Amino acid sequence: MRVTTADLWSPAPGRVLRWDVTASGAGQPAALSLNQRNHLAVAQAGEASVWLAAAFDVDGPIDVTALERAFQGLVARHSSLQIGVVADVHAADGSGLAARRYHPGDLRWLVREVAATTDEATTRETMAAALSEGCRPIGYAAFAPMAISRRDRSTVVLGMDHLHCDAFSTTVVVDELSSLYHAFRSGDHHPALADSGCFVGSIARDAEEPVRVWHDDERLREWHAFAREQDFTLPTFPLALGVGPGERVAQASFVGPLVDAAVTEALSAVARTTGASTYAVVLAALASAIRDLGGPERLATLAPVQTRTGEGARGSIGWYTTTVPITVAADTSRTGLAAAGEAVRRGVRLGAVPLDQVMATLPEPLRPTRRDVFMVSWIDYRHLPGATEAVARNAHHISAATLADDVQLWISRTEAGLAVRVRHPDTETAHEVVGMLLGVWRARLQTVAAELVVTGLD
Q: Which among 30, 216, 281, 337 could disulfide-bond with 101, CB atoms 3.0 to 4.6 Å apart, if both were Cys?
């Protein structure tokens, strides 16, 4: 799976197709998660759509009938894609919005040709505009089924507002949609797929039987301690970015490799010998690189962690993540890596504490200093659905490009090694700082892999 952004994606030209999906009837009331409610509040404030798209290639021109059936089959299997948000002045939470779940049989699908493009830039702009229009979170559908049809090899795309999905979900989309399309194209009307969990059902269960954490729970105390250490603000990237307080500018993006497969395997060996995860080693190296550029001795960040539990959740599309705090020292010695490993484990454990309880029990409310939050995400795609076919399918995870006032990093591991996607403000200062950081970070990772393995720790 190649992780990229809408401004860096390079789709070849062709006939751009889009399906408009509408729902009849009022639908059934549905519950929303805290993530979804917060996301909608941001959308109501006028923020641009934050969408994710799953894309993959198929041989020959698009078989429109087979692909439409595949899209319909995917929506029928995954409850998160059946959810729409509508205006409701009687909403219990005072938001003026309510969720409805629509039966797949009540959906109307209409395909149309958006454009016939002749160059890569126009194709990229056409796709980004259509995905931004089709993935608005309020209304149904907040997803956009699309394709780029060509004579030799075509591209299938499903864009989804974040309301519907997380990064893990894009791998499920590629795997299932590809299987369904090829089955229907070959005349197999009953393709066999693995069981999938019900995201909407899991949210409803959480609402009916919420997790309660006692006020003296150690995990809650750790959350509070982190907030106090941050002076009750959320973490920010500790180096200058060239944006003033309250200022936001266009997002700039970088996508590229960190280290190759051999170095990554060496880093994993180092991680095992120090009781850390590979992510912890990479995070400690990042902290050291930032320190070398004038940053602090300890790096505080937030990280998304998976909440997929129970039968079928691995094959389910939905927003199955929460956010946890992690602080690591700028120390890549053996002792430092062991400490980073423990810091990551503590952070993951905090994912079991509902964020609404964290916020409600803080002695002071968190004060935002920027609109974005400094986050460092990690996904090992080698273990996710469709991993073995990802390269052959030319599988992509594409994210919208919007505005930015902070740095966010997505680290992905594949058979090729480690890659990173960076989102940062499009300023001269940020470009210079991020460029220097990537160079120092790569060098630090290579040094850790070489020095610690050579000393016999492997």
A: 30
